[in-house]
Design brief:
CATH class of the largest domain: Alpha Beta
Largest sheet: 7 strands, mixed
Shape: globular
Helix content: 25-40%
Structural class: alpha/beta
Order of helices and strands: HHEHEHEEHEEEEEHEEHEEHHHEH
CATH architecture of the largest domain: 3-Layer(aba) Sandwich
CATH topology of the largest domain: Aspartate Aminotransferase, domain 2
Number of domains: 2
CATH superfamily of the largest domain: Type I PLP-dependent aspartate aminotransferase-like (Major domain)
Number of strands: 14
């Protein structure tokens, strides 16, 4: 085992001011949804150019409620990607609809929009793209498809807070846009998420769904007119989000600098070790800007005499944490039992077997990236087939 400090694949950054603010909320006695939540939603709305925003207990709830707002129900179909956290497709099943998986683009690892039209049927109601590692899809192409086929869009932008498309913030444009504020996200409330809406009517309907369908309360009683759940965000979470939002520009700059360093150092180490292409993340073009939520490589498993798990164990022995984001959803037992087959999305199946997430978070030191790159390429060189 390494004597050097362990580098996790991610770690949230909470400063003392944030910790003090949480203490103030706890001492106030109002710890559930209240004034800090209202303040956080207002700040998010301003960030997204004035669009209505509502916050929820987690990023799964945001997607579920987005589908409920759109009236997606039993017998409907929603097109999505097989490379995502399984919550993306689970919420589609959860409202009684059917996930329709479209294979991914091998470069971006996002849904291949050129294949979406062939998957559309009379039952298709929406498209749910996922912005893997914070990289958005081609928004122009996405919304041209949606308009052509009269479909709604629920953007699973869980990992894309702070990303842009042609200079516009993800969330400031588009249809319904869902973000997660889970602990490893670029902006974290520990747990939580938000939805960005087109109009107040949809936002108010989402409010009902997040709190038991409640429409009215007070001295004159209360009423419930839709079936809702318990998905509200607390003031404790909200005050963390307010402080994270202030720090977001600094977080983004640090993540971008670390990503640039990864490109330079990994390429140099690969060349020195004689390693083939690791299919690094797609560098930002002049029309897109990633928030660098994660940095991922594709292991050349056909060139190695070890599998991904063994590479991850070897890196852990060097004091380097890694993650897998993600195996193809079609390979999970639940989905296989529903009739899905990995062979139907071969690119996703291949990448899902070989993708590896390297550490990337604002608290990393300048020496961490070279250490990770050298450790990784040393392992690959050692286990390369002759």
């Amino acid at each position: 085992m390494s004597a050097l400090p362990f580098i996790p694949f991610t770690r949230p950054s909470f400063d003392q001011a944030t910790i003090d603010a949480v203490g103030e909320v706890l001492r106030s006695g109002w710890v559930t949804s209240g004034p800090k939540l209202a303040e956080f939603e207002a700040a998010l709305s301003e960030y997204f150019g004035g669009r209505p925003v509502r916050c929820f207990a987690n990023g799964t709830a945001t997607m579920k409620i987005a589908l409920q707002v759109l009236g997606i129900d039993e017998g409907d179909e929603v097109i999505t990607t097989p490379i995502s956290w399984v919550a993306t497709s689970n919420v589609i099943l959860g409202v009684g609809a059917k996930p329709v998986f479209v294979d991914i683009d091998p470069i971006t690892r996002n849904i291949d929009l050129s294949k979406v039209s062939a998957a559309i049927t009379p039952k298709t109601r929406a498209i749910m793209p996922v912005y893997l590692a914070g990289l958005p899809v081609d928004m122009d192409q996405l919304y041209a498809l949606a308009k052509q086929h009269n479909l709604r869009v629920v953007e699973d932008a869980a990992q894309a807070f702070g990303s842009q498309w042609k200079g516009q913030k993800i969330g400031a444009i588009g249809d319904l846009v869902s973000f997660s504020f889970q602990a490893n996200k670029n902006l974290s409330t520990v747990e939580g998420g938000c939805l960005v809406f087109n109009n107040l009517d949809e936002a108010k309907l989402a409010e009902k769904f997040r709190l038991q369908g409640l429409t009215r309360q007070g001295m004159d009683g209360m009423d419930v007119d839709v079936l809702g759940g318990k998905d509200n965000l607390t003031d404790v979470n909200a005050v963390i989000g307010l402080h994270q939002l202030k720090q977001l520009p600094a977080f983004q700059t640090r993540r971008s600098n670390l990503a640039r360093q990864y490109f330079d150092v990994i390429r140099a180490e690969m060349k020195s070790a004689g390693i083939e292409d690791l299919q690094l993340e797609l560098p930002p073009e002049n029309f897109t800007e990633s928030n660098w939520h994660m940095f991922q490589i594709i292991l050349p498993l056909d060139q190695l005499n070890v599998d991904r798990a063994q590479v991850m164990t070897a890196l852990k022995d060097l004091g380097i944490g890694t993650g897998v984001h993600y195996p193809a959803i079609t390979g999970f037992t639940l989905y296989k039992n529903l009739g899905y087959q990995a062979i139907d999305t071969p690119t996703a199946e291949r990448i899902g077997r070989s993708i590896l997430t390297l550490p990337l978070f604002p608290g990393m030191t300048d020496g961490d990236v070279p250490r990770i790159a050298q450790g990784l390429c040393g392992i690959l060189k050692k286990h390369r087939k002759n």
